[in-house]
Amino acid sequence: MKRIEDFKSIIDRYDIVFFDAFGVLKTHSGLLPGIERTFEYLAAQGKEYYIVTNDASRSPAQLAESYHKKGLHFVDANRIISSGQLTKEYLELKVDGGYVAYLGTDESAHYIESAGLKTLPVRDVDHTNIDKVNALVFMDDEGFDWFHDINKTVNLLRKRTIPAIVANTDYAYPTSKHDVSIAIGGIAQMIETIVGKKFIRFGKPDSQMFMFAYDLIRDYRPISKKQIVMVGDTLQTDIIGGNKFGLDTVLVLSGNTLPQDAENRIQATGIVPTYICESAVLGPEALNL
Amino acid sequence: MKRIEDFKSIIDRYDIVFFDAFGVLKTHSGLLPGIERTFEYLAAQGKEYYIVTNDASRSPAQLAESYHKKGLHFVDANRIISSGQLTKEYLELKVDGGYVAYLGTDESAHYIESAGLKTLPVRDVDHTNIDKVNALVFMDDEGFDWFHDINKTVNLLRKRTIPAIVANTDYAYPTSKHDVSIAIGGIAQMIETIVGKKFIRFGKPDSQMFMFAYDLIRDYRPISKKQIVMVGDTLQTDIIGGNKFGLDTVLVLSGNTLPQDAENRIQATGIVPTYICESAVLGPEALNL
Amino acid sequence: MKRIEDFKSIIDRYDIVFFDAFGVLKTHSGLLPGIERTFEYLAAQGKEYYIVTNDASRSPAQLAESYHKKGLHFVDANRIISSGQLTKEYLELKVDGGYVAYLGTDESAHYIESAGLKTLPVRDVDHTNIDKVNALVFMDDEGFDWFHDINKTVNLLRKRTIPAIVANTDYAYPTSKHDVSIAIGGIAQMIETIVGKKFIRFGKPDSQMFMFAYDLIRDYRPISKKQIVMVGDTLQTDIIGGNKFGLDTVLVLSGNTLPQDAENRIQATGIVPTYICESAVLGPEALNL
Amino acid sequence: MKRIEDFKSIIDRYDIVFFDAFGVLKTHSGLLPGIERTFEYLAAQGKEYYIVTNDASRSPAQLAESYHKKGLHFVDANRIISSGQLTKEYLELKVDGGYVAYLGTDESAHYIESAGLKTLPVRDVDHTNIDKVNALVFMDDEGFDWFHDINKTVNLLRKRTIPAIVANTDYAYPTSKHDVSIAIGGIAQMIETIVGKKFIRFGKPDSQMFMFAYDLIRDYRPISKKQIVMVGDTLQTDIIGGNKFGLDTVLVLSGNTLPQDAENRIQATGIVPTYICESAVLGPEALNL
């Protein structure tokens, strides 16, 4: 583990950079000031990037648009890998017709539709269609009535022996400087405990997320894991996931892990990044090439 | 482990019978037909009973009244031990003034009020009173907006280092023949995982429930654990809890544990009741004394 | 939570003091220097004490003798409550004859013998006696061959549906300034996961430990929980256990919880002692009465 | 989920078959009688196979040799994917020199050596080399003194902030018709709980195992997940792992899952194989081509 002053030197060492989104590129109050320079430098150096995120609430196109609106025009939808895409791939390969019930917004149902399957919000499951429900997906924490639909989901899973897929493994996400909201991964965990069945989870730290991005790259160029670095703010997802997949990793201190806590948390968890760096933002001088 | 045909012979062997409520005395569709004979026989034999329940949604008086309305007039509020009473005792001993925030119905807040403390539904916590909140209690799964108030509870516990008490350890409860509802214990478990703090739980299988009943008895008569039997339908709460406290136990097959599953579940869990009996109901002939 | 400079003022506030042993009265290198003054002051003030410990490796008489050898002559065997005694009570009430198999030293088997039952070290379980084994007790981490006897225990529990009792819930204990050893509670936890059965655990933080001491006192004098304080060095056992039982609690910083970590750990765990005090040792001036 | 009478029809549907080893090809008493016909038929049909196993106790070459000795000459070392190989890849990518400490036999250390790193059995860790230990690997449950070396491992991980890799995620494995032995994955789990750090696990059900085999295939031929089927006897590893990776799956009833329990376990766990088949053995008539 080495402390690195300047994120530029990280970029210089690798050919491809994987970024976590929240806490690395943006926070609850918007983009990290100056983060566009990082992308400008990447482009200038002919380096590639991917954004690897557990956010399955919107499609990559919608996620990219939200970066554009915030002023980060470099972000391309094709460079966003969300756990929603793994969910889509699973559904394509493993579910043959029928309905896919889901908890989440209509937008999040995009990943189900794009797998060519019929969507059914949990609130609309009833005795006329329950036998045609062939999978359940936990997409997002919004878009449904918690009391009514969470209880309904428990009973759906007690009655039907179908795969339950969690498209976002996070338990909570920040909504302001001091507040968090429970993520769909936390709700799914509660339901899994109650029904006693085994759910399928997609998202960091699971290797399948990294593999998905890695495979995309290999489709158009040869690459070795040694040429890729994963940048994240969370030891338990970004760093251990990147490590296990065999990537070098950078812990940035702009999100979940506070500067004063970093060393303690690394020691306590035994999750060791290759580098620690204040943030992924480059100084203005970095672009004086 | 012995199979017993007739619950009468259980009563004959002990001086005091502890009953679980749900699945033993009543189900979602009302009282077990004939259960009043069990209480009539107990009275005729000069035996005592206690109902030991994880239901903290209402006061013992309200719980007793609900039995009376269903037609079981023998049940006395003084013989109902609910996990709510342990919560009340905890609050009396350990919380000095201020507010006690809670999730649950107004009725469930009875246990807080009766400890002489000021109640505050989580929905009413705000910046003017948050610093005066000295404990949080999970009372019941109804009486609040799940989305709004569960998230608010997470943030309350992140901001204030206060005890969080779970007045009902159950994860779910049946609402009809085929359906269940998530209990407040399941919600509390999710929040505990998310905030990473350690909650205080009251309810079976924890020994403190049995001790509370045992102490009540010792206040007016000498008693040994050998004279008491615990009757329940759930291995993981009633039976292991009773066993650990040192009581003989009876598994009845009128609730959670189906007749065809009983042996398998006992073997799989290693939780062995002293007796297995179809139900706690006595045949009409039992009263021909 | 209040910081208290002088442990004397704690004693002055209560009638009975419960002490944890390790980290409070002694460490791996012997008695805390000066701790005898605490006991002298207690005696002088007519206050009572109990030592409430998860150490089931030896009988209370042997534990008391070990204090005497170290120079603390005040400690009386009758004032030591070990989790071994709860195990003994359980066996007396719940096991009718046959053998009780155990992992531990011969000394630790004392608790089984004193329940009037026949002991059988796991290494001696064979096809001639396995059907007479009516309980298994995890007593201590020494006195057996780990590889051979831990595997044998797994298979015993797969073949026999009997209660498995853990007489010490701790996962590890310190053996020197920098080293720990795995305690029998850690081994039991591994076996419980592997066999998938539910074990019965005795020891702090479980209420039954505190109840046992409380009941002993009530046999000879009236007492309220308000008159007792629990003193310990570990938030997850001594403090949360004492709190839940309704006692005031003192966290001392002479053992598991380092002075620089105390506030952070309290905040992270949400386990709040009534008081924090450097140690349970009194200054020499305390005895100038 | 479909019941299939004849494993031949499974082979006919796919191009590549992934087999679990234990409970599918062999049991504690040797090869499944007739299993060589399955491999003969695969060869005759020009179909490929891979053996995907959590057994990291020996190298693929040694594993292949053990099949040859048992009489199954078709098995090629290049077609065996063990969790040891993922461990080797991790070490190559992520550990730069120094020692790799390990628990296991000398044979299991093969995977560390083949990553070009210096091996150090935990028993030989001492103050002269502890600072050069850069990773710890849990390889196998044999080859070391449990009491001495498991405790030593706990203290090594308390002193050094290094990655801990578990090369076999299983908790136990069968050693005879009625007995099991604790696997290194069970021991690792106990140590992880005690030291509170996060270990890196390789082995089914983790996707990285399947990905490793999939990547091997893609190096020499184009393939889609639809052309591969995973055959296993364990829902919690083979089937859920295969499902999650997007493969069709076959549950065979020759190992962990007994014929009479299959439906119940599928319903209880919610882990649904594509097919259920008595075993992977073909009848003699299958070869009359």
Automatic annotation (TrEMBL), chains A, B, C, D:
<dbReference type="GO" id="GO:0005737">
    <property type="term" value="C:cytoplasm"/>
</dbReference>
<keyword id="KW-0378">Hydrolase</keyword>
<protein>
    <submittedName>
        <fullName>HAD-IIA family hydrolase</fullName>
    </submittedName>
</protein>
<dbReference type="InterPro" id="IPR036412">
    <property type="entry name" value="HAD-like_sf"/>
</dbReference>
<dbReference type="InterPro" id="IPR023214">
    <property type="entry name" value="HAD_sf"/>
</dbReference>
<dbReference type="Pfam" id="PF13344">
    <property type="entry name" value="Hydrolase_6"/>
</dbReference>
<dbReference type="InterPro" id="IPR006357">
    <property type="entry name" value="HAD-SF_hydro_IIA"/>
</dbReference>
<dbReference type="Pfam" id="PF13242">
    <property type="entry name" value="Hydrolase_like"/>
</dbReference>
<dbReference type="GO" id="GO:0016791">
    <property type="term" value="F:phosphatase activity"/>
</dbReference>
